[in-house]
Amino acid sequence: MSRKILIVEDEAPIREMLSFVMEQHGYQAVEANDYQVALEKIVEPFPDMILLDWMLPGGSGIQLAKKLKSDDFTRNIPIIMLTARGEEEDKVRGLEVGADDYITKPFSPKELMARMRAVFRRVSPTALDEPLEIEGLKLDPISHRVTAYNDRVDMGPTEFKLLHFFMTHPERVYSREQLLDNVWGTNVYVEDRTVDVHIRRLRKAIEMHGHDRLVQTVRGVGYRFSSR
Question: Which residues are annotated as modified residue 4-aspartylphosphate in the UniProt record (predicted)?
């Protein structure tokens, strides 16, 4: 499944151009032309990134970014602000409410793609390109697909990142704090128990062929991904 990019832009020509560029680069483009439609489109499975215009009918991009970053379910979705405003203080405002980057119109598709790749690398530090496989459980970072003995496995973006981290760091025990730092990032405030919730979701997602046993609880310490 390709990464889903939500394009929130009220100017149709720009929105259509961005959708075309996204699809040309293998992403799934979803469009919204105002604040309310954008909110309606931000549902599970959540977008992997949001390209967010500063000025929108019904509310500003700043308001939307602030709302998303204050919600536990959407706070990890990376946001790149798109705007004609070039003033330094406006850039700072965008970053202060949680945007991951800022690009000023007009911009080239090449520059946008470079910015997107940079943000994806920052928010997914484990994003290596090689497919990973352990005991028939296969994760492909490029297609963002997980299979178990060739059967498709559906999971949310956080569970995907958690599984990716585990599969690239097998046989080691990680505390909840270490998992938060490596999977959620050091600049995000999330309670330790949130890890337990996502561990349960991950186990449920991969239980069909018994792969849930690979995610092991080490009592009093944390979690380990192991085939032993």
Answer: 53
Classified as helix, coil or strand, 131 is: coil
Report how far residue 94's alpha carbon sits from residue 99's, in angstroms, rounded to the nearest whole number: 6
- 93: number of CA atoms within 13 Å, CB side? 14
Dig out the tokens for 60 from the structure: 């500003």
| Residue-range definition of the domain harbouring residue 37 | 4-123
Model pTM?
0.57
- Half-sphere exposure at residue 41, Cβ-oriented, CA atoms within 13 angstroms: 22
Name the region of 62 (left: φ>0; alpha: ψ -120 to 50; beta: rest): alpha
Average pLDDT over residues 65-84: 88
Domain boundary among 76, 104, 123: 123
Cα separation, 161 vs 112, in Å, equals 23
Q: Over the stretch 9-66, which tens digit does the pLDDT of each residue have?
A: 999 999 999 999 999 888 899 999 999 999 999 987 889 999 999 889 999 999 999 9
* Boundary (domain end) residue, out of 88, 123, 158: 123
Backbone phi and psi for residue 194, each to the nearest 5 degrees, phi listed first: -60, -35
